[in-house]
């Protein structure tokens, strides 16, 4: 797939799992990340207009952290064996993330999205020198979000 990058933010993840995921992802200098919180997270940036990440005018950003059903039970704290699947709602771990994305967008805007793609709210970002500086704090969003749209205004 053209224009796809994913980064696993390493925190209490077994080294062999981390290395396997890194080998399966395509890295470029288009995305630089710095974890300023500590949840396990997978960050993916996907071009929505078949352009490279650098040239795209519409990107989908995915920040996936730990999620479990309410009342879900495991046989041990390592969560290797499921005892009860639980029920809705899903409990999603929040976090604070700081990202830098190389981009040619002149007037970018970032939105948190619902799962159906509806925009929830605009998130401020800084643009300059061909890079976008993004800080996302999922603890302060109006509602939970995993998906974010980065687009030309």
Set out the fold topology.
Elements: E1 4-9, H1 15-24, E2 31-35, E3 41-47, E4 58-64, E5 67-70, E6 73-74, E7 82-84, E8 87-92, E9 96-102, E10 108-113, E11 119-123, E12 125-128, E13 131-137, E14 147-152
Antiparallel strand pairs: 1-3, 2-9, 3-4, 4-14, 5-8, 6-7, 9-13, 10-11, 10-14, 12-13
- Secondary-structure-derived class: mainly beta
Series of H and E elements: EHEEEEEEEEEEEEE
Number of strands: 14
| Helicity level | under 10%
Low-confidence segments, given as residue ranges, are 1-28
Folded structure, characterized:
This protein is mainly β and 153 residues long. It has one helix at 15-24, and strands at residues 4-9, 31-35, 41-47, 58-64, 67-70, 73-74, 82-84, 87-92, 96-102, 108-113, 119-123, 125-128, 131-137, 147-152. Strands 1-3-4-14-10-11 form a 6-stranded antiparallel sheet. Strands 2-9-13-12 form a 4-stranded antiparallel sheet, with no helix packed on it. A hairpin with a 7-residue loop joins strand 6 and strand 7. The model is unreliable at 1-28 (pLDDT under 50).
């Amino acid at each position: 797939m053209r224009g796809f990058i994913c980064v696993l933010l390493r925190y209490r993840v077994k080294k062999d799992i981390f290395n396997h995921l890194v080998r399966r992802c395509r890295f470029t200098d288009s995305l630089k990340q710095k974890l300023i919180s500590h949840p396990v997270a997978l960050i993916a940036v996907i071009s929505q207009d078949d352009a490279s990440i650098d040239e795209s005018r519409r990107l989908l950003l995915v920040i996936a952290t730990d999620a479990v059903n309410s009342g879900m039970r495991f046989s041990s704290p390592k969560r290797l064996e499921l005892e009860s699947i639980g029920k809705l709602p899903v409990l999603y771990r929040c976090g604070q993330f700081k990202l830098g994305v190389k981009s040619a967008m002149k007037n970018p805007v970032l939105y948190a999205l619902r799962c159906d793609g509806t925009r929830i709210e605009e998130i401020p970002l800084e643009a300059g020198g061909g890079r976008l500086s993004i800080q996302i704090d999922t603890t302060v969003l109006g509602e939970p979000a995993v998906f974010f749209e980065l687009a030309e205004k």
